[in-house]
Each structure stands twice: as C-alpha cells, then as structure tokens.
Amino acid sequence: MVVRIGVVDLLSMSPDSMTRRVFLEAVAGAAAQLDLTGMPNENRFETTVFGIDPRESADLVDWSALAEMDALIVSGSEPTAAPIAAEPCTAVVARLLAECAEATSLLFSCQSAHAALHLLHGVDRHRLSRRQHGVFAHTVYPDLGADADQVTPIGLAGNGIERLTAGLTGSVPIPHSRWNVMTSADLRAAAVPILLDSDAAQWQLACSADGLRHVFLQGHPEYFHDTMAREYRRDLRRWLANPTLPFPDVPLGYFPDEIYTRLLAHAELVRAQRDPVLLENFPLPLDGAGVAADWASHSRLFFGNWLRSVEEARAERELLSA
Predict the structure, then answer these.
(1) What is the pLDDT of residues 19-73, one digit of tens each?
(2) Which residue in 66, 25, 31 sits closest to 45, CA to CA?
(3) Spatial separation of the C-alpha atoms in residues 99 and 214, rounded to whole Å
(4) DSSP labels for 237-305?
(5) Listing from the earlier edge strand, what are the strands of the sheet with 126-143?
(6) Separation of alpha carbons 231 and 228, rounded Å
(7) Which one of 31, 50, 161, 196 counts the least CB within 10 Å of its CB?
(8) Which CB contacts under 8 angstroms, 24+ apart, belong to 228-237?
(9) Catalytic pick from 133, 138, 220, 298?
(10) Do 195 and 145 contact (CB within 8 A), yes or no?
(11) Average pLDDT taken over every residue of the chain
C-alpha cells in the first residue's frame, strides 16, 4: 500500500520554492525513521506537490488530482488583509475542505491553519504589535475542550488525539514566524483540542476532535536550521528597501547567546547606516549545533506520528470495505 501525500504550496509557484523543500524534507525525514515492516519506508509514501496561487481563479486548480491524495499538507501564504476572512487563501482553503472532504487528514500550516479554523470553528485572528519570530518552548497539553466525551480514536493505533504527540515529552522547541495569532484561549472557547501549547507563543499544534481529520500548525516545525536566519536577513533587506516597514527584531531563542548579542549590535548598525553591505557574511546555522534549541528531532517525531496515523487509518478503512 502506497500512501499519497500532497503538499499544497500557497506561497510560491516556483518548482524549487523553500516552502516545498521544507515540507518534502519533513515527510522524507519522518518516513525514513518510522519503524515499519515490509515495503521499504521510502516506497510507502508518495509525495506530489501542487502549486496554487490564491490570487488566481480556482478553476485553474486540478481539484480531482488533489482529491485523489490520502492526505494533504497545506502551506501558509503571505498576509494581505486584516481579517482572515478577506485573505485570498481562505477561499482556497474552503474549496480544499469541500473537494478533499474524503481525505484521511488535512494538515494546515500557519495562515492556512488560521483560515481553516475560521471556516470550521468561527475563530478570528488578532494582529500582533510585533512579529512573533523565534524558537519557543512548548509542552504537551492534551486539552480535549468541551467535546472531550465525544473524542474517539481513529486508526489501528487507537490512541485518539494523543497519537500526534507520542514520544514528545518535556520542553518541545518549535519555531514561530507570524504577524497574526489565534490564541490558545480562542481555540479553547471554540472547543478545539490543543496538543502543544506555549505561554510565550500560544498553541502550536491543534486538531479536530477525532485527532486526525484536521490538523492545525500555528508554528513551523518543518523549518530547516537556517530558515529563520534567512527570514531575518530577508526582512532586513526589505526594511533597507522600504524603511517605513517595521524594523525586524532578531529572532528570540534561535541564535546562541553570543551570536544573538552580536546581532543586536549589528541591527543597530543596519538601522543607523542603512548599508546593504552589512548583510554580507550573515551567520546561517548549518545544523543543530548552530541554533540555541534544535527542534529537528521533535519535528521528525511529530511528522512520523502523523504519517503513521494516516497510513493506519487508510489501512483500517480498506479492511472495513473489503
């Protein structure tokens, strides 16, 4: 049995976009570590990328091909409007929810997660005064919300909503990068189960009551080690081109202390001199040793749990329909 995973890129139409690379690597890295028998892991999961420009007509999208996927990962997109209902991606997410209703799992990331939560549960987002940018500690929080008695397990694992956080213990570092937030209180008020929560950054992982059909990520466990540094450098370049933009903050909890202190001084130089040359030789972490808190192993655990749950749920459905 081959499980078909679709990656929906709402951020870029480029075939080698960073969005596609990080999610494809997240799936491949998690699959390689799964303890599975029979077919080699690399042959158990087949990934297909779909580029969708939210600003273009929905009629240009091959919805039938998307509907054939067993599960979808839907990326975020650049914010363009204040209310989430007015974002172009929200119309795409609404169509995905309708066209791919039979998929085993739809995993929504960042802005697409906000769009899905708004459409499914009526949750609204709030604009932050400063960008939430950095790596923050989270704890496993099996908050079942008001529907606790109605939660039922799906799949052969039979672990309910807790299956997605299996193996995640203690402090779980996760990158966040966003200008908007749906708070943990918002989700609890809407009876949305929260699985990873943070006092500093709000929830990171939430899901539908069955634990798999809809999965929501407010943070970015899929990020490479250097992704956040590249984002910060990009934001500095944007500010140099347009100083009316908010001056970007150095990401919190991401760079080791010595580099973070050096970058604070560097930021003041950039602000004072406005010289693009200052962005040359910018420090880019090469691996887990180059960041203050390495989230890679936690990311592989989460995506592995998700892949296993999708596979087991599909196998169970096939068994029941045989």
Answers:
(1) 999 999 999 999 988 865 444 555 789 999 999 999 999 889 999 999 999 999 9
(2) 31
(3) 14
(4) HHHHH-TTSPPPPPPBTTS-HHHHHHHHHHHHHHHHH--GGGGTT-----SGGGSSS--HHHHHHHHHH
(5) 45-51, 3-9, 71-74, 105-109, 214-217, 205-207, 194-197, 126-143, 172-181
(6) 5
(7) 50
(8) 228/133, 228/134, 228/135, 228/175, 228/177, 228/254, 229/254, 229/255, 229/282, 229/283, 229/284, 229/285, 230/18, 230/284, 231/133, 231/177, 232/133, 233/279, 233/282, 236/267, 236/270, 236/279, 237/276, 237/279
(9) 220
(10) no
(11) 91
CA angle at residue 246 from 240 to 252, to 5 degrees?
A: 100
Helix (H, G, I), strand (E, B) or coil at 58: helix
In the annotation, is 110 catalytic?
Answer: yes
Residue given tokens 């397990």 in the structure block:
153
Q: Which of 87, 110, 176, 312 is catalytic?
A: 110
For residue 170, which amino acid is it?
G
Pairing of strands 126-143, 105-109: unpaired
Q: SS3 sequence, 5-26?
A: EEEEECCCCCCCCHHHHHHHHH
Active site residue 222: yes
What burial class does residue 208 get, using C-beta atoms within 10 Å of its C-beta: 0-12 exposed, 13-18 middle, 19+ buried? buried
- CB atoms closer than 10 angstroms to residue 264: 12
Q: What is the DSSP letter of 205?
A: E
The torsion angles phi and psi of 275, rounded to 5 degrees, stand at -115, 115
From the list 87, 222, 231, 312, the catalytic residue is 222
Question: DSSP string covering 96-147, please?
Answer: HHHHTTTSSEEEEETHHHHHHHHHHH----EEEEEEEEEEEEEEEEEE-GGG
Taking 90 as the threshold, does the pLDDT of residue 7 lie above it? yes
Share of the chain above pLDDT 90, in %: 85
Question: What's the pLDDT tens digit per position in 126-173?
Answer: 999 999 999 999 999 865 444 433 333 333 334 577 899 999 999 999
Length of the chain: 322
